[in-house]
Amino acid sequence: MPNSFFYAIISYFELRDLLLRGQLALELMDQRKQFSTEDVIRLKFGTRMLVAERVLPDLLTTLRNVERPSAETRSGLSAAEGWGQQLSAHSRGVVLFERFWNTYRRTVSQPFAVPWSADDPFVTPRGLADQATAVSHLEEAV
What we know:
By secondary structure, the protein is mainly α. The chain has a domain at 48-141: Penicillin amidase (Acylase) alpha subunit, N-terminal domain. 56% of the residues lie in helices and 0% in strands. It has 7 helices and no strands. Helix 5 crosses helix 6 and helix 6 (92-107) crosses helix 7. The longest helix is centred in the last third of the chain and has 16 residues, at 92-107.
């Protein structure tokens, strides 16, 4: 029977779907062959938000296509369009997206239009599975 060290190491591996955090880590590690301590710290505290990269284009398209947008929809669209998809303490867009995403993903059984696939592991999941629910959660987040 493997020892506790084995279980401690194996807990760091994705055993099912390759989650976004793991995808981002692999992408960052693939960029170079060697890393200094400073490189690792810079990457660890990076401001990139992969879930926004995968969801925001679909959310923006959805919001632009709302027939009679509410004031909240227009305000949310404006904030989301002006956001550079980076984490920043001074960004209204990141606060809005975080509030939207946290409520939206808890409401739907599958938040992504295209779930993670082993056939396309570094570009899935992506999109919004339920656009109407996404709009209402964005309005709520505003």
